[in-house]
Amino acid sequence: MPRTIPFFLFAALSVNAIAAEPTARTKLSAPEHGSIPVAFVVTEGAAMIDFAGPWEVFQDVMVPARGSAMADQHVFKPYVVSDSIQPLRVSGGMTVTPDYTFDNAPVPKIVVVPAQRGDSPKMMEWLRNAAAHSDVVMSVCTGAFKLAKAGLLDGKPATTHHGYWVQFQHEFPNVRLQRDMRFVQSDSVVYTAGGLSSGIDLALHIVDGYFGRDIAAATARRLEYESAGWIGGGTSAIKYSEPVAVHSPADRYREGAFGNWRGNLASSDGTFRVAVHLWPDAQGKPTGTVDGIDEDMNGTPIDSVKIDGDAVTFANGGSEGRFTGKLDAKHDAISGTWTQNQTTLPLKLTRVQGNSLD
């Protein structure tokens, strides 16, 4: 997944995202004979489940009415297309060898774009051309960034992984971000799925569109896939816009610098919510953790916590950042700055009771 390293633990915040619109059941026209080519756009660093999940869905579809031969019943024909046919490394270190390049790939009816690093001009041109001639162009997770960069999402609803909402909104303000959706239909051809496993739901939704509910349900059963997220309008069963409750030893403290603190870090890339938890360890020395709330990056240990009177400092070795602040007289706020990558930003932490969501 793409990453512009934001400040303070890569936290992300979606601001004033438009409420999700219902997605009508897709109707697609299946050919009476022959196969449906499915092109998977894969470059370096592609997230495996983003393409392997939909790949397994499409390759497992069987339509008995199309003939007695297995070749007739397996109607979807997946293949990999990339900038070259040289082997490339995807997430987890697996090697994938593309079948075709963007110059010689068969004309697809379906295009699947997972999260990945590549975004060459040739890829962008190929995606735009595919959107003009294919039945479906679908992204999974931050593959939505590729569709947006290609100009396929301007003025349209779309979704992506919940940990990238703020980055997506910042980079593509003309796209109407939809939160808490497994998938969104952007127009008659383009679709976007949320994070990772959401691609399986969208692929089953597309199968449903071509061959109906019974075939899609049979495919899900063959996969032993128990989620029903592919049925209906694509709304998530879990509200990823609502952060998880986080508990720590800091929950017991209400005085001094110990306790739970929340703050908003405003940068040129957006506003990022953070939670800080401070407590004394078994030897009485201050310690703690920090959360990137919207990205579910919770419980990251803080380095070098120092409390000297009303002066509070700590560092986060993972992001090479440092907080320097001062506790107010009422012990309900710590005002200071966060410094990272030679940039200093104001950060005011306000005490919260119990855990970081109270």
TrEMBL record:
The entry's keywords: Signal
Record field: transmembrane: none
Signal sequence residues: 1-19
Pfam families: DJ-1_PfpI
UniProt-listed CDD domains: GATase1_PfpI_2
Residue span, DJ-1/PfpI domain: 38-207
Domain of life: Bacteria
Claim: Ribosomal protein is one of the keywords in the record: no
Protein name (Swiss-Prot/TrEMBL): DJ-1/PfpI domain-containing protein
Organism: Dokdonella soli
Lineage: Bacteria, Pseudomonadati, Pseudomonadota, Gammaproteobacteria, Lysobacterales
